Recover the amino acids of this structure.
């Protein structure tokens, strides 16, 4: 399917997807939000790639590219570590 700008868009059947679509959405929203916040001028691209298709299973990769200030290597290494809160229950 193509959206109005002519870019390809994907329809995802969440009932058949494995993983956590809510978490994926949160991660993408957070990363895109940061890209918007730190990109005063230029462009931001969300890229979705089909890496592998085996029968009815697919492996996808999402990446975000922007012309913003970027991240240090240390910040990038911490990006996908498990979240821990300083609060104790």
């Amino acid at each position: 399917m193509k959206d109005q700008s002519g870019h390809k868009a994907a329809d995802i059947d969440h009932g058949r997807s494995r993983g956590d679509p809510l978490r994926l959405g949160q991660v993408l929203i957070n990363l895109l939000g940061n890209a918007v916040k730190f990109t005063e001028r230029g462009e931001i691209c969300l890229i979705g790639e089909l890496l592998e298709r085996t029968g009815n299973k697919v492996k996808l990769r999402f990446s975000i590219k922007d012309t913003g200030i970027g991240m240090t290597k240390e910040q990038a290494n911490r990006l996908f570590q498990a979240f821990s809160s300083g609060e104790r229950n």
In short: The longest helix spans residues 21-38.
